[in-house]
Amino acid sequence: MTPDELAAELDRVGYLPDAGVTTAAFLALRMHRPLFCEGEPGTGKTSLALALAQAMSLPLIRLQCHEGIDASQALYDWDFPRQLLHLRALEAAADGALDPDAAEASLYTRRFLLARPLLRALEESPCVLLVDEVDRADDEFEAFLLEVLDTNAVTIPELGEIRALVPPIVILTSNRTREVHDALKRRCLYHWVDHPDLAREVAIIRRGLPGVSERLASQIAVAVGKLRELDLLKPPGVAESLDWARALSALGRTELDAETAAVTLGAVLKYREDATRAVASGVLG
Amino acid sequence: MLTGYVGFARALRRAGVGCGPDRVRAYVAAVEHLDPGRRDDLYWAGRLTLCGEPDDLPRYDAAFDAWFGGVEPRRVERRKPLATRLASLNGGAEQDGRTGRLATAASDVEVLRHKDIAGLTAAEKAHLGELIAALEPVPPRRRALRTRKAKSGVPDASRTLRAMLAAGGEPAKPRYRRKGTRPRKVVLLIDVSGSMSPYADALLRFAHVVARAMPTEVCTLGTRLTRVSRQLGHRDAEFALTSAARAVPDYEGGTRLGETIKVFLDRWGQRGAARRAVVVVFSDGWERGDPALLGEQLARLRRLAHAVVWVNPHVGKAGYAPTQSGIIAALPHVDRLLAGHSLDTLRHLLKEINRA
Prior knowledge:
A: five-stranded parallel sheet; B: alpha/beta; MoxR family ATPase (chain A); ATP binding (chain A); P-loop_NTPase (chain A)
């Protein structure tokens, strides 16, 4: 597969990649390296993983990171209540003549292991593993993630090593609330995702909402582009342009004028200060 | 051709992008998978493998244009380490006859504790550095999301079950769990402009000690914002301070507090660094920019942060009145205004941070 073919595949499933995203995804596939996507919220980092899974017809496994996430939530856990029930059942069946060693061995088998996203990805590979918002997790978790991504294997003390036959396609995203450790980034391809240019944004809106006219889509893209230059607390991303387009088509508007913009501004700007600044600057027409 | 790529990576390193050997290897591998005859492929192969943060991207673009256009990029000017620069600052003090170890031995710790840092001799400063390094900051704590075992609280089913299993299935005493605590984030914003320069070294040392003890973000304020958390994260104090000094381009310049705090909030604070954190601003409040902007940004900071503490080295001095434009604009949005001109006041500040 060439980069151009990959771009066509992504296009087919409704994701319009630029040269950077295409090359990044292509190299991630070829070099078996995780792809680390960083950028403003709403620039399509997560949807890249969704689109890639769809384009390659692979299952998507998502690990949403949050503060305090640990191995038992990301990797595996033993199903304790089931183990207990199983033991009780064995006891009842054996009627006092239970072999403790055999009983214990039967507790630590694959059927009592709850596979969490990382282990599932290793077992089900080939697949796309999305580690979303890795900057929200703690530093310790990074070190642990590093180990799994480096070896594509996990060692469970009671069971032994579980290794992926094919390394999964890994995409990590970060909103940069915290600097992720360099050791993790070094093992990845690094892609900074920017807001799309005007033509691409129009195309993305049209692709996402076919009912929106070319004219309205470009009006939205131009307005959003101007808003991004306004020095706002939260500049709108592509997700917000799509929301805006959706809001306008729900209202049955075919034209973005100042009055329409003012009543639907809540779809694009999520801070009161931003809304006041946008109205005051007069970029909305 | 291979030497060409490695040469480009070296040029990039000189331009300030931290690409180590493993990144270079990934770069060469990436070029092999692509078509190096196409300028786009060549560009993206390097950008994806050699860069590691958004600050690298403009440097990469410049180096790429220069290298593949035929001109080698300009060498980044090396900066003198902070220690050297400070020595030159203290040059006057060192010639007053009380130099060397003798002066250190003579300067009593008790005296040093209350003395204004700006008035110290070079030897006393070195001694102060040691005293600051010996501080033991205790992080403030906040309620954690996850629960841990406790004497009382909500019943802990799984631990109770485990205890019952250990007792051979007999009823056991119920176990409990309760929300634990975690260290709260601390943000230190240090003004390194000309008027604060006598305090800058001591404050950066202080920041290093704090950063070693709790989750901390440190930025310097001046004509621009520089994040030095990564440099100060290094265990060795001298190494950390030297690399921090190298990273700060506007040492002893002017101050644009409002603008730099805005940059901090836009780039780091709003996204998470300042949320629920204890934010400490070290500045004398001399604002060259618009005080209204500073007030507005501090109001924003106050809404994000758990507590905002303003530390002003002049507060502790006799006859101080908050008259600087910056301080007047900031005061309504500050939880506490503290002194920070001596070791004792810094120690007091640690207590306030812990209590915040």
